[in-house]
Design a protein that fits this description.
- It is a single chain.
- The chain is α/β, with parallel strands linked by helices and 391 residues long.
- Helix content is 35%, strand content 22%.
- Strands 1, 2, 3, 4, 5, 6, 8, 10 and 11 form a 9-stranded mixed sheet that branches. It has a 6-stranded mixed sheet with strand order 13-12-14-15-16-17.
Length: 391
Amino acid sequence: MLLSVIIVNFNVKYFLEQCLCSLQAALADIEAEVIVIDNCSADDSIEYLQSQFSYITFIQNNTNEGFAKANNKALKLAKGDYILFLNPDTILAEDTLQQCIDFFSRHKDAGAVGVRMIDGAGLFLPESKRAFPSPMVSFYKLTNLSSLFPRSRVFNKYALGNLPEKAIYEVDVLAGAFMMVRKEILDKIGGFDEQFFMYAEDIDLSYRIQMAGYNNYYLGNITIVHFKGESTERGSLNYVRMFYEAMRLFVKKHYSGAGAWFISQGLYAGILLRQSIAALALPFYKRGVNSWAITHHIAITGDTSQAKVAIKIIKKNHPEAAIGCIEGKEQIIPHIKENTIVFCPYSVLTYKEAIRLSQIYKHAALLMWSGKGTGSIAGSNHRNAAGTVWY
């Protein structure tokens, strides 16, 4: 078998539904298996999706085992020459996976590849490419200098802010949201380190791939959607604690000497400081708008049969909405800032084209997705928002 796709799910069944629909199109000509492992969701994810995607292997955990442990459980069952660790809140293009596999065949030194990710609003996610959190890199991120100087080679080395987002090059760290790895390497070095419950486990795996003598490649010519806001809110106290605790654990594990001790102690202090700041800023923190109040104008484009399904879903949830269908993917949608746009990818509108359009229409009020055969519409207009779902 050529490819095994592993997805860890937790309470995002409608986003996972859209993900699996796009994944099905991307796997059309690839010998592959898909393993979805559910971390004890409370939304009946498995029951809802199993009948729609009978070819997928679903595993139900009795507790939330975390990202690393759940992935490793599925990895033990995987038979593919390549393993794709994929988040459930992603949308792929039809040629995404084949392009990655072709890159591996041309680059024997490649241990893992990642891709350019955009959020649900069509904006680039800088964590698509990263450097290792060395003591100084961690310090610049902790002190927020990386955000103040996003293009700096020095201050924003963590997100490699000086490198163009659409190029191809070797990087230190790939994002666990989309990380394709040679299975033979994982057999040698193991999967994710289960010390990391959430965050930094992808940094650790990227590091060990490099230590095994292989390179990690960022493929900026391939773009996927990662809605991102479906887990811990990035402005919350819990996010601050979990993220910097994970960074501290990585530094403790892989760095030694006075510098590592200094940054480890600094991270302890920084966690307290950032949590204090987060607590003060929480009432003013800018979250994405995920309510219906943003717009009453909806434009649907793509597959005709799915558009009819989408119209029924919208009318059920918001009968007051003004709905228009647009034929032809090249048409300009008027009054873009006032519109919610629903992509219904299939034959008329491919996922690849819809992902391209989402970046053109990034100033729309909200971008939503409804794949062929799905019974829901899902999207998010901000990477810090939990997203919007209609069904």
